[in-house]
Design the sequence.
């Protein structure tokens, strides 16, 4: 049921209840089976659209519909600022350009989505830059990485190509968006490849998905071994720019996150290593019980009764956080990312 179909008084009552809750509370209500869950889902959808509008996205309703048409996923800082608006308000513009929206799409969809964005009414869209992932380079130690060009973007080796676009409406309001094409048919390959676990989350047309809900409690986030042992050439590039590699982690600490980068994942509940979804040694997947999916479209809520949505299972994406686990003794595992069609984040495999 759409919020707009309810009487004015019913809407006011639902809002009066929901507005007393924080975002997590509203997400909890959205997961209920009672009538209130319909209102919560409608409120979450409305708030996604309002946040998109505030970020300078023209025709935010049309953009939201487009997410569903192309199985696109909003990820990056837009997601934590939607979920945790109180925290986001504490960020200064030097720390994060809050207005930016990052959209992830499956392989082969970049032109389609750029055309759809250009067709959104209400603003002019300009493509500022567009890159295919640079060819892989072999490091001195024999490891393969994505090369040093456009470093910030391409340290994520699950990205196939990207474009940065700018919207400007007739009043001069500007919005920026990065459109990121995955190496996989799934938009989630680069998302589970993010080096901090709290970033492995997204907003789709149908709902909110979080790959590490138990690890993200209390604004906690774990750095992957990719951060602890950055590619040689990437590190050299950062040195050349006068930046410390840990500066990237410090950025998130300044934003209020409890960033853990010890090399051994600590502080999670006791479990059976290599099989629990809480274990960094376990190979996870986008359809396993550790994935938190909260639908906020009515379509999504109905579909969720019969299993994971299509955009999480076609294809399934697998990942392992890797490193070592406090419950696993000396056992260790490398980080990895791949999908059920055999596409991986390894730059040397030709995908
Ligand atoms: Zn473990």
Sequence:
């Amino acid at each position: 049921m759409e919020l707009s179909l309810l009487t004015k008084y019913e809407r006011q009552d639902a809002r009066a209840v929901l507005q007393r809750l924080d975002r997590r509370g509203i997400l909890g209500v959205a997961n209920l089976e009672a009538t209130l869950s319909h209102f919560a889902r409608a409120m979450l959808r409305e708030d996604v659209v309002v946040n998109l509008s505030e970020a300078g996205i023209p025709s935010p309703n049309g953009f939201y519909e487009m997410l569903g048409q192309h199985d696109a996923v909003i990820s990056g800082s837009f997601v934590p600022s939607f979920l945790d608006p109180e925290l986001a308000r504490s960020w200064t513009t030097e720390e994060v350009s809050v207005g930016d929206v990052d959209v992830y799409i499956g392989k082969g969809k970049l032109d389609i989505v750029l055309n759809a964005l250009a067709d959104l009414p209400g603003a002019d869209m300009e493509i500022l830059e567009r890159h295919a992932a640079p060819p892989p380079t072999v490091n001195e130690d024999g490891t393969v990485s994505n090369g040093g060009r456009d470093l910030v973007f391409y340290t994520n080796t699950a990205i196939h190509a990207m474009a940065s676009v700018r919207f400007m409406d007739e009043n001069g309001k500007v919005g920026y968006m990065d459109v990121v094409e995955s190496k996989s048919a799934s938009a989630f390959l680069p998302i589970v490849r993010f080096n901090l676990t709290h970033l492995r989350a997204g907003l789709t047309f149908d709902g909110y998905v979080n790959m590490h809900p138990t690890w993200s409690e209390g604004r906690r986030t774990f750095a992957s071994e990719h951060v602890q042992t950055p590619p040689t050439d990437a590190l050299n590039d950062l040195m050349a720019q006068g930046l410390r590699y840990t500066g990237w982690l410090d950025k998130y600490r300044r934003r209020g996150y409890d960033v853990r980068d010890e090399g051994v994942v600590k502080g999670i509940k006791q479990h059976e290593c290599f099989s629990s979804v809480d274990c960094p040694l376990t190979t996870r997947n986008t359809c396993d019980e550790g994935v938190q999916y909260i639908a906020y479209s009515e379509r999504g809520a109905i579909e969720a009764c019969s299993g994971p949505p299509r955009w999480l299972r076609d294809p399934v994406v697998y990942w392992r956080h890797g490193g070592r686990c406090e419950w696993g003794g000396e056992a260790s595992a490398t980080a990895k990312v791949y999908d059920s069609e055999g596409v991986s984040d390894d730059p040397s495999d030709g995908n």
Q: What stands out?
A: Residues 55-349 form one domain. The chain has two domains: 1-54, 55-349. Residues 271, 273, 279, 281, 325, 327-328 surround zinc ion (CB under 6 Å).
